[in-house]
Amino acid sequence: MKLNNQKKLAAKIFKGSPKRVTLDTSKLDQIKEAITKFDIKGLISNGVITERPKRGVSRARARKAQEQRKKGRQSGPGSRSGKKTARVPKKEAWMNKIRLQRSFLQELKEKELVEPKVFRDLYRKAKGGFFRSRRHIKIYMTDNNLFSKKE
What we know:
Radius of gyration: 37 Å
Largest sheet: 2 strands, antiparallel
CATH architecture of the domain at 88-143: Orthogonal Bundle
Shape: rod-shaped
Number of strands: 2
Mean pLDDT: 94
Structural class: mainly alpha
Helix content: 55-70%
Strand order of the largest sheet: 1-2
Low-confidence stretches: none
């Protein structure tokens, strides 16, 4: 029994595809007699002809990826767009670096591992961007024998 025309009419009423129109198999004889839009509308209101819901795009993969990003994954070079300074601005990077270096120098001063004059010199060098990192300060100090001997 072909009910293509009825499906097409129902699809037009639903403003969708005939693929999404479902017919009640127990009432096929009623559906076969329906040949006008009005008849089809009556069957729709009785629940003989129904429409399957539209399929959306699943968010499962997106949720999984988001969960991984929360853990710090999926942030490699392939996922990055823009310059390095777009992720961490130049000023922020500098602030982090200089704060670390200054706190390290302060620590050395408090432990009396460095003399006040040397501390001041290193502090100014750090301010001028001479040191790359905390480790660089240590290397520079050992190379130039700037550690004061505790007695």
